[in-house]
Specification:
Number of domains of chain A: 2
Oligomer: heterodimer
Shape of chain B: globular
Strand content of chain A: 15-25%
Number of strands of chain B: 2
Strand content of chain B: under 5%
Number of helices of chain A: 12
Largest sheet of chain A: 7 strands, mixed
Order of helices and strands of chain A: HEHEHEHEEHEHEHEHEHEHHHEEEE
Shape of chain A: globular
Structural class of chain A: alpha/beta
Distance between the termini of chain B: 44 Å
CATH class of the largest domain in chain A: Alpha Beta
């Protein structure tokens, strides 16, 4: 009896040993590249005045991440999936900062993206920098975001000094092409970081270009009546009106300008509200002939662009915007960096992001050839196009007109605006 | 000179519409003694009802009043009856129950986010409508026709609410309750029914304001917030609970907003409005046209 008991114990011991060994063996190899997830914290305005663009930002991110995960996730991490976390900034800087703290400390995210509103992105990137978490900025355009000397900030979109530079280059090209002289400029802009940043650069560019600034008017983006501002525009008699607006005020301004029959040679807008898909629906034919500067348009000549837009439209019922495409691309830039980093260590991801040189693949549906970050974290290839809003028989749409080589075949821009 | 007249007219028209948006706030405060933080959201609901009624039927916006007013009245009536009344009953001994204010804040958030969920964040504005974009041109002066309609709507609404409160039996019951709710109850007035009616009337005026705004403004889930802040300032300027005060307070703000930008940038007029607001609070806390005696 006694001997049997001993042998039983030995047998049990061996069994346990085998189990433990096999556990170590099986757990050992795959755990080096186990099916982890990469947590991406996204801080965007899901409610409040910019909710419309925030929702698009969320939808387009979802679309990109679904594609990436369906294609096998991050292969160098053993097929790790991207897990998306969203926080609502309500377009408020203090909310952005608080949510970044929460994402990093409570949720343990590996990467942050956001925040659309420059005023929110600016303080929020400082939080990421403090904790060393890489922060990919798809669209906030204020120059100062990449001029803080931060190591963890990477911006995909062109910065606003490039936007204003191209707006004036466009204006000069138009004057030459259509042999029309423009002298008097009016600047009307929302009273935030974004609008004031643009206006400051416009003033310098106007001085350099020999234009006369007849009106320089900030207005509160929450204005419920913009006819006083429109009256000021009308009385200043400018040739060209340059705008920076969020969505609600862009619609209100466009409709009020039409009501008061303000005569202008051209209106040049700066994306944002004018690029919002509901802008065209809500202002209808009043939006005709407005020029808008964007990074991307649905008629851009790039492989995959049409397909991505068709997919998004089928899913969410709207066309992609330049800003949405930036967010879409941001996910692929992240995927590319994660593949090369082979780790979820924020420092390694940062190194990989800094070495990005993305020239193709499913996310590269932008007009420019590559994504490559300079020392400040700015994508040095980001470039811009001008579109004109017009109806050429297929309803109101946005038509690429500048640079001339990117112009839609067969379209002649309307400049100056006809008097009707 | 002609510019000043033109701006003054626009200011008066737009201001009376501001007054109309604030009318419900002042009525509800006058009777319930509660600041209704959900008022902007009620305005938003009114705008959506008007927007859908106009864009689906293609009718003149003001014809939809026939639908909007009863719908909004019932909405307000039952919102007070089902959501707010129980809180009132729990705090029946308090003159200005704080928890009710918190509940209205909750209603605000729920309504705004429900709208965001159902209709999405898009900005909508009615196209191809008889009122949209119409301008009256007198020489060089241009006057917006939809705003002119809004002005008359505001005056008529304020006038009829005033008449209703002064001349009808229910109106007298409402005034009695607002003066002293316990004494009114002792006289056989059903206090909570009066509250329901007052809330219904306040909500219906928000609906009328929605109809006046839809022809020239766009509709989106958080649109109420923009008018809410203005509404509070207007109501305090004009005197809480005063109907004429709300319209006059609105016109003061409208004129500052409209004439001011011709002498300074538009952002400064906001500072003037808030400055005036503070000044009134210091000098005459009951408001410019507020009643001196305690309600």
């Amino acid at each position: 009896m006694k001997g049997r008991k001993i042998s039983q114990n030995v047998f049990r011991g061996i069994l346990v040993a085998i189990c433990v060994c096999s556990l170590i063996f099986f757990a050992g190899t795959p755990s080096l590249a186990g099916p982890e997830v990469v947590k991406i914290g996204n801080i965007i305005p899901l409610s409040g005045p910019s909710a419309s663009v925030g929702q698009q930002g969320k939808q387009v991110r979802e679309m990109a991440v679904e594609e990436i995960n369906a294609a096998g996730g991050i292969k160098s991490l053993g097929g790790a999936k991207l897990e998306m976390l969203y926080a609502d900034s309500e377009s408020k800087p203090e909310k952005g900062v608080a949510e970044a703290e929460r994402f990093i400390n409570t949720e343990g995210v590996h990467v942050l993206t956001g925040c659309w509103n420059s005023a929110v992105t600016y303080p929020t990137t400082a939080v990421a920098e403090r904790y060393g978490i890489p922060f990919v900025v798809p669209v906030s355009v204020a120059d100062k975001i990449t001029e803080q000397g931060f190591k963890t900030v990477f911006r995909i979109a062109a910065k606003d000094s490039w936007w204003t530079r191209d707006q004036f280059a466009f204006l000069e090209d138009m004057e030459k092409e259509f042999n029309t002289k423009v002298k008097r400029l009016a600047f009307v802009y929302e009273n935030g970081d974004w609008g004031k940043g643009f206006a400051g650069q416009w003033k310098e560019l106007a001085k350099k270009g020999g234009y006369e600034v007849v009106l320089d008017e900030p207005y509160p983006s929450t204005a419920t009546d913009l006819s006083p501002v429109v009256q000021k525009i009308k009385r200043a008699r400018p040739d060209v009106l340059m705008l920076v607006s969020n969505a609600a005020d862009a619609i209100l301004l466009t409709n009020t300008l039409a009501e008061y029959k303000v005569k202008l040679k051209a209106i040049i807008a700066s994306g944002g509200g004018h690029a919002d898909p509901s802008f065209l629906e809500a202002s209808g034919k009043n939006a005709r002939y407005i020029f808008d500067i964007v990074e991307w348009e649905t008629d851009v000549n790039k492989p995959g662009a049409k397909e991505a837009n068709a997919k998004y439209k089928a899913k969410y019922g709207q066309n992609l915007t330049g800003e949405a495409v930036d967010a879409y691309l941001a996910m692929y830039v992240l995927k590319d960096a994660l593949e090369r980093a082979g780790s979820v260590d924020p420092a390694k991801i940062r190194e990989a992001l800094a070495a990005t040189n993305l020239r193709g693949g499913p996310g590269m549906i932008v007009g420019y050839p590559a994504v490559e970050f300079d020392k400040t974290g700015q994508n040095k290839h980001a470039a811009l196009v001008m579109v004109q809003i017009n109806d050429i028989g297929k309803g109101i749409e946005r038509i690429t007109v500048w640079p001339k080589e990117a112009r839609r075949a067969g379209y002649t821009p309307v400049f100056p605006m006809p008097e009707n | 000179m002609i510019y000043i007249v033109e701006d003054l007219i626009n200011g008066i028209l737009m201001g009376s519409i501001y007054g109309l948006t604030a009318l419900g706030l002042t009525i509800i405060f006058g009777v319930l003694k509660v600041i209704n933080f959900a008022h902007g959201s009620l305005l938003m609901v009114g705008m959506y009802v008007a927007y859908w009624a106009v864009s689906l039927s293609g009718l003149h916006p003001y014809l939809t009043l026939l639908l909007v007013v009863p719908v909004m009245y019932l909405f307000g009536y039952y919102l007070q009856d089902i959501v707010i009344k129980p809180i009132f009953k729990a705090e029946r001994d308090v003159r200005e129950p704080i928890t009710v204010i918190i509940v209205t804040t909750g209603v605000w958030y729920i309504l705004d986010n429900l709208t965001l969920l159902i209709f999405g964040p898009q900005y909508r504005s009615i196209q191809d409508n008889p009122l949209r974009g119409k301008m009256l041109e007198i020489g060089e002066m241009m006057i917006s026709v939809p705003k002119l309609w809004g002005f008359f709507a505001a005056i008529i609404t304020a006038g009829s609410v005033y008449w209703f409160l002064q001349k009808t039996r229910t109106g007298r019951a409402i005034r009695a309750t607002s003066l002293d709710r316990d004494a009114a109850s002792l006289m056989g007035i059903k206090q909570y029914r009066v509250y329901n009616i007052a809330f219904g009337i306040g909500t219906a005026t928000a609906g009328i304001a929605g109809v006046t705004l839809v022809p020239f403004y766009n509709v989106f889930p958080t649109v109420g917030v923009l008018f809410d802040i203005k509404g509070f300032i207007i109501v305090v300027l004009g005197g809480l609970g005063s109907i004429g005060g709300a319209i006059l307070g609105g016109i003061i703000i409208g004129v500052i907003e409209s004439v001011g930008p011709q002498f300074m940038t538009a952002t400064w007029t906001e500072a003037i409005v808030y400055g005036l607001f503070l000044l009134v609070l210091f000098a005459k806390p009951s408001g410019l046209f507020g009643v001196k005696y305690e309600w």
